[in-house]
Design a protein that fits this description.
Layout: H1 6-18, E1 24-29, E2 32-38, H2 41-53, H3 59-68, E3 79-89, E4 92-104, E5 110-113
Antiparallel strand pairs: 1-2, 1-5, 2-3, 3-4
Helix pairs in contact: 2-3
Amino acid sequence: MSNPDALLVDIAAMVESEHSNQMPLTVVVPGAVITGRLAPESLWHERVAEVLAASDHLKPFAALFAADEGAPRSGRPTHLHLHVARILQGSYGLPHTGGMYRIAIADISSWTVGDLSYSDQ
């Protein structure tokens, strides 16, 4: 979206200001549908840093995320930060357990409130 949806920006700003990570959201970006829960950027950075720090091979990258987690943000959000998120592909969500995604709001062509999932029934 060359002109980001003002309502989506407001939702992201509310998640940031209230430090809530319970808002389920599904977005459509070029080539993918991604579903998960919005998280404040600082919480997202913290969680990514934890995952990286637990890896022997990726540990040096954790500092990049940990250094940014306390930085004050100014202005309106430009990105969504999703956790327990999955890329929906056919009848599967990848990864099955959910991952951490950072998505530019300007790249979102459509969205809906709610976490989409599939059922075999």
